[in-house]
Amino acid sequence: MKKKKKKNIIRMVDVTNRDGVQTSRVCLSKLQKTMINIYLNEMGVYQSEFSFPMTSHEANYIDANLQLVHLGVLKPIMLSGWIRAIVKDVDAATKNTKIQNLHLSISTSKQMIEGKFQGRVNKKDVVKMMTEAVDLAKKRGVRHIGVNAEDASRSDLDYLVTFAKAAKEHGATRLRYCDTLGYDDPFTIYKRISYIVDKVKIPIGIHCHNDLGLVVATSIAGAKAAIDSGVDAYVNTTVNGTGERAGNADLVSVILALRYSSGFAGKYKLDPKINLSKAWKIASYASRAFGIPIPINQPGVGANAFAHESGIHADGALKDRRNYELYDFEELGRGKPEVIDTGRKITAGEYSGIKGFRNVYERLEVKFDNEKEAAKILELVRYANIHNQSPLAKDELKFISTHPEIAKKLFTMSL
Ligand SMILES: [Zn+2]
Q1: CA of residue 26 to ligand 1 center, whole Å
Q2: Distance 155 CA to ligand 1 centre (A)
Q3: Per-residue model confidence as pLDDT tens digits over 312-323
Q4: What is the whole-number distance in angstroms between the Cα of residue 196 and the centre of ligand 1?
Q5: 173 and 96 in one domain?
Q6: C-alpha of residue 109 to centroid of ligand 1, in Å
Q7: d(CA 251, ligand 1 centre) in Å
Q8: pTM for this predicted structure
Q9: What is the Cα–Cα distance from 290 to 382, expressed in whole angstroms?
């Protein structure tokens, strides 16, 4: 019997907690970053680039989230850190944290090598720095080592092949093609990634930006190139498309495009773990946490994504939803009524007392063993409010009462 060839797969790597929070005027608390990791895991996202292991204020957050991995709360999602592809960063990241998965990043374009290193480093040195960093990561027992070619879309193609070959030979298991400035279009990225993978068989991460409004299209074209050339693809996304400048590819939009566009539906294999029913929840949560409203015309989760007004459209959609809708709102976790209190409301905040606090948790159907436990959680909730600088969401309140010690760690920072 002929052995069936394994179909290559497209997985999601969400970088909200790295590129997303790097965005100008956007900030998430460590509790909010943790909630995003939890929701990404529920959504079946393969990997969350969740931290900067070189940044000291991330230390407790990293530790707390790795504990959640250990407890099975953040499972099966892979948590990975982002560092520069230099020995110094690998050394510090592996000494200061217990992170098992790292992405090592270095610039590969002439513009950036000359413009950033100012003549101190040439193209050859970049490969050497990267391979030395990979070697050390391997030596320190890092499980997954990805190598990122920053500004790949403006880099010389044959140089990228040399770079990818060296990375693979030294033990990197993935190459990230970074369209750092959003310079590629779907046609160029397809050709370029095909060229690299045809010469070096290495799984490809696709990291695109939206400076020219092409981000979802370039991301899926990059994935198509990787799959067509016989390797797995790892598309980088962020929740609601936040990210440096004009942003990264929106997580929900990319999934919808892979699942429903005519060239992908039924032809390419999207990670079967993906569960879109959490889309509404994660998009709403991130919008609130970022303080950035979701545009009404946002694919899937925008207020108008399933709205019909004109006579012909409304009539058509009512007769058969497929007349004007490619996919169902129920699939995205929409359609359930959301209850808003219009009467008296007791909230839990930084100055709450025990009575009001108990009322808040009773409504969440959370019970405490005794007064002492309730007082302890109340104190944590007060800290959480200051930490988030906003009223807490129900899931955050539940998280704090379920994992008080981990919550405490998240709120603690030391210099
Ligand atoms: Zn980026």
Answers
A1: 14
A2: 16
A3: 777 777 887 888
A4: 20
A5: yes
A6: 15
A7: 14
A8: 0.94
A9: 21
CA 370 to ligand 1 centroid distance, Å: 48
Domain for residue 298, yes or no? no
Q: Are residues 285 and 378 in the same domain?
A: no
Q: By residue range, what is the domain housing residue 375?
A: 354-411
Residue 415 has pLDDT above 90, yes or no: no
**Ligand 1 center from residue 244 Cα (angstroms):** 6
307 within a domain of the structure (yes/no): no
Q: Structurally, how many domains does the chain consist of?
A: 2
Is 165 found in the same domain as 65?
yes
End residue of a domain, out of 253, 274, 290: 290
The C-alpha R_g of the chain, in whole angstroms, comes to 23
Centre of ligand 1 to C-alpha 269, Å, is 25
231 and 119 part of one domain: yes
Instruction: Kindly state whether residues 273 and 392 are assigned to the same domain.
Output: no
Q: 15 alpha carbon to ligand 1 midpoint, in Å? A: 8
- Express each pLDDT in 102-159 by its tens digit: 999 999 999 999 988 887 889 999 999 999 999 999 999 999 999 999 999 999 999 9
Residue type, 179: D
Q: Of 273, 290, 307, which residue is a domain's last?
A: 290
Q: Report if residue 134 sits inside a domain.
A: yes
Ligand 1 centre distance from Cα of residue 19 (Å): 5
CA separation for the pair 255, 395 (Å, rounded): 24
Q: Which pLDDT does position 3 carry in this prediction?
A: 58
Distance from residue 48's CA to the centre of ligand 1 (Å): 14
DSSP secondary structure letters along 115-181: HHHTTS--HHHHHHHHHHHHHHHHHTT-SEEEEEEETGGGS-HHHHHHHHHHHHHTT--EEEEEETT
Between the CA of 284 and the centroid of ligand 1 the distance, in Å, is 23
Cα of 114 from ligand 1 centre, angstroms: 20
Indicate whether 273 and 371 sit together in one domain.
no
For ligand 1, the distance from its centroid to the CA atom of residue 366, given in whole angstroms, is 40
Neighbours of 2 (CB within 10 A): 4
Alpha-carbon distance 370 to 393, whole Å? 24
The answer to whether residue 67 sits within a structural domain is: yes
pLDDT tens digit string along 171-218? 999 999 999 999 999 999 999 999 999 999 999 999 999 999 999 999
CATH number at residue 251: 3.20.20.70
**Beta bridge pairs of residue 147:** 104, 175
